[in-house]
Amino acid sequence: MAFAGVLNDAEVKAALDGCSAADSFDYKKFFKACGLAGKSADEVKKAFAIIDQDNSGFIEEEELKLFLQNFSAGARALTDKETKAFLAAGDSDGDGKIGVDEFAALVKA
Questions:
Q1: What is the DSSP string of 38-86?
Q2: Which of 2, 31, 96, 103 is a plausible cystine mate for 37, CB 3.0–4.6 Å?
Q3: What is the mean pLDDT of the segment spanning 36-59?
Q4: Which residues form the EF-hand domain (predicted)?
């Protein structure tokens, strides 16, 4: 798992199980359930780096769509509705992507 050593496998599984149905993803509940909300700023930055698949320094819409698969390869993709809501919640400067500081604010929200 990509988050080995940062997150607890059982918590990640519980978080994924909690949003397995389409349109059931709630980032606040997910970050709390998987334990990321309680992690240090450095650990949140490590999580950001894993999710930023193309290493652009931003999490773009396509990376958000596959967000859950960073936690488990068999996880579902987010629906377009979930992806757009997630992006809107995290993109505080309106540039259409989520930077590391925006991601940290989202995790701690």
A1: GS-HHHHHHHHHHH-TT-SSEE-HHHHHTGGGGT-TTPPPPPHHHHHHH
A2: 31
A3: 96
A4: 39-74, 78-109
Mean pLDDT of 65-93: 96
- Looking at the whole model, is its pTM more than 0.90? yes
Q: What does DSSP assign to residue 97? A: S
pLDDT tier at 1, thresholds 50, 70, 90: low
Residues contacting 102, CB < 8 A, separation 6+: 90, 91, 92, 93
Binding residues: 52, 54, 56, 58, 63, 91, 93, 95, 97, 102
Q: What letter would DSSP give residue 37?
A: G
